[in-house]
Amino acid sequence: MSVKLNNPLFEKLGMKYPIIQGGMAWAGTGHLAGAVSEAGGLGIIGTGYWKADKVREEIRRARQVTDKPFGVNVMLLSRHIREVFDVIIEEGVQVVATGAGDPSPFIEELHSHGILVIPVVPSVGLAKMMEKKGVDAVVAEGMESGGHIGMLTTMTLVPQVVDALNIPVIAAGGIADGRGVAAAFMLGASGVQMGTRFLASAESEVHENFKNAVVKAKDIDTLVTGELLGNRARVLKTKMSKNFVKQERIEITKPKPDADAIEELENGSLRRAVLDGDKENGAFMAGQISGMIHEIKPVAEILEDVWSQAEDLLK
Ligand code: TUI
Questions:
Q1: What is the distance in A from the centroid of ligand 1 to the CA of 24?
Q2: How far is the CA of 315 from the centre of ligand 1 (A)?
Q3: Closest CA to ligand 1's atom 3
Q4: Which domain of life does the UniProt lineage start with (predicted)?
């Protein structure tokens, strides 16, 4: 028996699996996103704090790998989002995902260009607001995820969002195998998003140190930075991230840094992890499920293995 995708959105996008790749800043390159779409999932380019030219370049790199639809994630804390949306529209991207904020001001414009809009939401309140504004689906992301996170777990967030909405809900956070996918479907989700699993893939372009760190990580090897200073983000435990959390307790009394300093801190430390594998100064954003990832596999194999295990369980 094959489980129906039960999601017209995914059928419209010609996907073989109800699996989306999370739009990871720096790590979600055109090459990775293209590979995920080509293999039957939906790849998402993560633009983080990138400027328009870099986004255009990565969109074109995705097109070298696939003719299938893929998405671009716009990180709404960035100051470059207007120019990034312009590039997305000019380049004819079919799906926009958003993270770290409220995309309301852009939804109508994106829809007028035929672009599907799928915001990532950390709460029922924002999910309901997004449905009202006419988005095509939401990703309900639990705090098991890597990177910028909300307060609720996937187990608690997903069924509450499913109950509150009539549009498709895609579950994210802590999913890296077929058991996670089957569990998400049991909670009422009609698709899943995985980030960390694709970080440790053959097509992922993150530094080898980063992939190895995910493979080596145990269950308790992540921590949350920004708990005190804002912008909570889950990263792998390193000397630097442990120290950062300690430093926050001291700096909470100091004036908040300006936007340039915040961008350099967040964008710079992630860039150092992804491009340089810098264990001293890099922020290795990864989810709690890192502890369950033991090998680097090609994207097509990940999708096939995860979905066939999920199908067996869901029968
Ligand atoms: O966006 C993510 N994950 C990210 S973005 C990113 S780049 C960055 N780096 C360092 C610090 C901050 C960002 C790395 N990882 N996931 C989706 C997500 N969205 N998680 C939480 C949210 C969210 C939070 C608040 C979405 C909406 C929201 O709304 C608040 C509002 O503006 O109303």
A1: 11
A2: 35
A3: 148
A4: Bacteria
What would the pLDDT profile of 183-195 be if each residue is shown by its tens digit?
999 999 999 999 9
CA nearest 175: which of 21, 17, 11?
A: 21
Spatial contact of 263 and 50, defined as CB atoms under 8 Å apart: no
Q: How far is the CA of 12 from the centre of ligand 1 (A)?
A: 27
Task: Determine the Cα–Cα distance for residues 107 and 114; give it in Å rounded to an integer.
Answer: 11
Quick check: pTM over 0.85?
A: yes
Mean pLDDT in residue range 73-77: 97
Position 75: which residue type?
Answer: M
- Give 74's contacts (C-beta < 8 A, 6+ positions apart): 47, 81, 84, 85, 88, 96, 97, 98, 99, 103, 106
Q: Tell me the domains of the chain and their CATH numbers.
A: 3-205+295-314 (3.20.20.70), 208-289 (no CATH)
What order do you get walking across the sheet with 233-236 strand by strand?
147-148, 233-236, 222-225
What 3-state DSSP class applies to 142?
Answer: coil
